[in-house]
TrEMBL record:
Any Pfam family the entry gives: Peptidase_S24
The protein's name in its UniProt record: Helix-turn-helix transcriptional regulator
PANTHER family noted in UniProt: HTH-TYPE TRANSCRIPTIONAL REGULATOR PRTR, PTHR40661
Keyword Glycoprotein included in the entry's annotation: no
Domain HTH cro/C1-type: 9-62
PROSITE patterns assigned: HTH_CROC1 (PS50943)
Source organism of the structure: Shewanella vaxholmensis
InterPro entries from the UniProt entry: Cro/C1-type_HTH, Lambda_DNA-bd_dom_sf, LexA-like, LexA/Signal_pep-like_sf, Peptidase_S24_S26A/B/C
UniProt keyword annotations, A-Z: DNA-binding, Transcription, Transcription regulation
Repressor is among the record's keywords: no
Length: 233
């Protein structure tokens, strides 16, 4: 089975890029690209996304080799860098909308934490055009933090995700926020024959796939699809 570095090198050659050209697109040195391809180090967070974008593939394909994921730069959610918190006194821009940021509620990307009580605290601002592109209605969107390491390196501990609570229909390979027996988690979901569900993490070394049978599904509620995430590391 090929490694992330081998897939990265393979993809780079397919789209006819040198290590130097790729490094400029990603914003790192050519030495770093060489280290990634040799397996000495691995891209994480923002760098993983930028590498996938430059190679015209998805982080999923770089990490797992799923051939269907080479068609789009990112198939799960829109990535963003830093963001600002705003209070009620900050005027909205013409193309801006506010989405609640529930800072006291975490989506566990590891073992899970007990659901907290929602409150209206800080808000994050999004461009209306960005939400429209993702097909997200502001009334059905919320932002929360990810806790744990199971979704690393794509979503390190402390990342923030945007969840579309109206999108609960499962599409294989997409990231969803779920309520798992009273605990909130974020996972990639896959349907299984017989009505079961597979929960997948990016960090499969520490967090192997979880197979949920039809009977166990009663303990899982899909909260919504992850449409956006921000990594601050």
């Amino acid at each position: 089975m090929k490694t992330l570095g081998e897939r990265s090198k393979e993809r780079r050659k397919i789209i006819n890029l040198t290590q130097l050209q790729l490094s400029k697109k990603v914003g790192v040195s050519s030495v770093t690209i060489s280290q990634w391809e040799s397996g000495d180090t691995s891209p994480k967070g923002e760098n993983l996304y930028k590498l996938a974008q430059a190679l015209q593939c998805s982080p999923d394909w770089l990490m797992f080799g799923n051939s269907k994921n080479t068609k789009k730069p990112e198939s799960n959610a829109e990535w963003a860098g830093g963001f600002d918190l705003w209070d009620n006194d900050s005027p909205l821009g013409e193309d801006e909308v506010e989405i609640p940021f529930y800072v006291d509620i975490e989506l566990s990307a590891g073992e899970g934490i007990a659901e907290g009580v929602e409150y209206k605290g800080p808000k994050l601002r999004f461009a209306k055009s960005s939400l429209k592109r993702q097909g997200v209605n502001t009334d059905h969107a919320a932002c929360v933090k990810v806790n744990g390491n199971s979704m690393e390196p794509v979503l390190p501990h402390g990342s923030t995700v945007g969840v579309d609570t109206s999108a609960t229909e499962i599409v294989d390979g997409k990231m969803y926020a779920i309520n798992h027996d009273g605990m909130m988690r974020v996972k990639m979901l896959y349907k299984l024959p017989g009505g079961g569900l597979r929960l997948r993490s990016y960090n499969t070394d520490e967090w192997p796939d979880e197979h949920i049978n039809n009977e166990q599904l009663k303990n899982i509620k899909v909260i919504g699809k992850v449409f956006w995430y921000s990594v601050l590391i």
